[in-house]
Amino acid sequence: MPQLPAQQRLHAMIDTLRQQIAQQPDGSCRQPRFDAQLFRCKGTRLADYLQELQHNAAQLAASDSDASRRQWLAQKVLDQIAALQRECSSQQLRVVRERPRRDPLQPKRDEYRGYETRLLAMLQQREQHLAQAETLSVQQQLMREVEILQERLARCRAALHKLEIAAQP
């Protein structure tokens, strides 16, 4: 029995997916990728999901059941193909996103660098105001603020230095 054009297109789409998945490094991740209603498979590799898709496509081609069951299965196969295509196209992003953090101190380091940047900006602003200050009382107030900011900046840099030392093996 010759294949219908729709069946040929379906097989071509599945073959293309098979090739895309074969080009992925491993395709594994730490948890199932898709909703349980879309795939019964609980695997972590794209090949696991492709296998279920192929099984469903074969079941669709050989199905002698009623039209509503065939329509439901056809829609499910199309949804599975679309989901696998999206997953293949975003695989490059997933590898980066799922890579475990190597440096547990990085968030704290980023936080301290943010403080340092803000302190430097505040210090620069106060020094500019000090240079433009006209009265002695304003100058004295700004000098105290500059000293306080310099002390805070020194503490911040000391904390950064401690983090750098802690990060070294």
Structure description:
α1 packs parallel to α3 and α2 packs antiparallel against α3. The protein is an all-alpha fold. The mean pLDDT is about 80. The radius of gyration is 30 Å and the shape is rod-shaped. It is about 75% helix and about 0% strand. It contains six helices and no strands. Pfam families: PriC (PF07445). InterPro entries: PriC, PriC_sf. This is Prephenate dehydrogenase.
Task: For this entry, give a set of tags.
coiled coil; 169 residues; mainly alpha
For the largest beta-sheet, the strand count, sense and barrel status come to: none
- End-to-end distance, in Å? 68 Å
Q: Helical content, roughly?
A: over 70%
**Global Rg:** 30 Å
- Give the low-pLDDT segments: none
Shape: rod-shaped
How many helix segments? 6
Number of strands: 0
Task: Give me the oligomer status.
Answer: single chain
Strand share of the residues? under 5%
Helix/strand order:
HHHHHH
Query: Which structural category fits the helices and strands?
Result: mainly alpha
The mean pLDDT is 82
Protein name: Prephenate dehydrogenase
Keywords: Coiled coil
Organism: Pantoea dispersa
InterPro entries: PriC, PriC_sf
Mind sketching the topology for me?
Blueprint: H1 5-23, H2 46-62, H3 67-89, H4 91-98, H5 106-132, H6 136-167
Helix pairs in contact: 1-2, 1-3, 2-3, 5-6
